[in-house]
Amino acid sequence: MRDSKLILPDPKRRRLITGLGALGASAALTGCDSLSRNDRFQTWLGATDRLTRAAQRLVSSRESLAREFSERDIAPTMRANGSTNPSNADYKRHVANDFADWRLRIDGLVREPADLSIDDLKAMPARTQITRHDCVEGWSCIAKWTGAVLGDVLDRVRPTSAARFVVFHCADNIYGGPVKYYESIDMVEAYHPQTLLAYGLNDDRLPVANGAPLRLRAERQLGYKMAKYVMRLELVDSFATIQGGNGGYWEDRGYEWWAGI
């Protein structure tokens, strides 16, 4: 297990980036109907978002690792938040049969689409890491995660050169409504060695409350990026046409897309 310190970006540049993100988010949340219908304004918002993502990637090292901890640092219980027991019928059926016929669909901009079972993922080289989950609500929790390295999984389906993002489509309907949770990361983060498709928590199976049978662990980002109940990976060149077009459920509601720690 590697134990490395997180390399933090320069604070002044971080403030600039945060300001750019806040500018785009605040404009999107003003509720001004005339602006929301203005094509030039929408184009400007899109350009601002692209600039923010590009700037964030510039100040974030591709190689820096999130800190890893020791066994003695593990919390007695990994706190569960957000959805903890999806209520839709398909997911309940998977739980009832112990995920025996569950499959992870991987498609989009790939040369070899795949449908992988949990056993398929467990047959791949596994990584175990003890890391801290930082929630945007202000709490943190240290736990041990085991799973397949996402980069290895992507190599299996052979992304095309046009693929820029991995979109995670999930089983949980937010607040019982019609909208399902989703998230996205770029290909740099997807191929980071600590980015896992986790099926194990604290030397046991991943519990339903924490995202069974599979969840994302992207250790350099805040908790809302780490999608639970993952059902499908879609590789895309843009997420503009997916739900609200901002790359994630909470991002569609004004949260920052990058969410780096």
Give an account of the 3D structure.
By secondary structure, the chain is α+β, with helices and mostly antiparallel strands. It has two domains: 53 residues, no CATH class; 188 residues, Alpha-Beta Complex (Sulfite Oxidase, Chain A, domain 2), CATH 3.90.420. The protein is built from seven helices and ten strands. The strands form two sheets. A five-stranded mixed β-sheet has the order 2-1-10-5-6. Helix 1 packs antiparallel against helix 3. It is globular and about 45 Å long. The N terminus is likely disordered.
Any chance you could write out the topology, listing elements then pairs?
Elements: H1 11-28, H2 33-36, H3 39-59, H4 89-96, E1 104-108, E2 114-116, H5 118-122, E3 126-134, E4 140-149, H6 150-157, E5 165-173, E6 180-186, H7 187-190, E7 195-201, E8 204-205, E9 215-218, E10 230-236
Parallel strand pairs: 1-10
Antiparallel strand pairs: 1-2, 3-4, 4-7, 5-6, 5-10, 7-8, 7-9
Helix pairs in contact: 1-3
CATH superfamily of the largest domain: Oxidoreductase, molybdopterin-binding domain
Largest sheet: 5 strands, mixed
Q: How many strand segments?
A: 10
The proportion of residues in beta strands is 15-25%
Rg of Cα set: 18 Å
CATH architecture of the largest domain: Alpha-Beta Complex
What gap, in angstroms, lies between the N and C termini? 21 Å
- Overall 3D geometry? globular
Can you tell me the CATH topology of the largest domain?
Answer: Sulfite Oxidase, Chain A, domain 2
Order of helices and strands: HHHHEEHEEHEEHEEEE
- Please work out how many helical segments DSSP would assign: 7
- Strand order, largest beta sheet: 2-1-10-5-6
Poorly predicted residue ranges:
1-39, 41-46
- Reading off the top of the CATH hierarchy, the class of the largest domain is best stated as Alpha Beta
The number of distinct structural domains comes to 2
Specify the oligomeric state: single chain
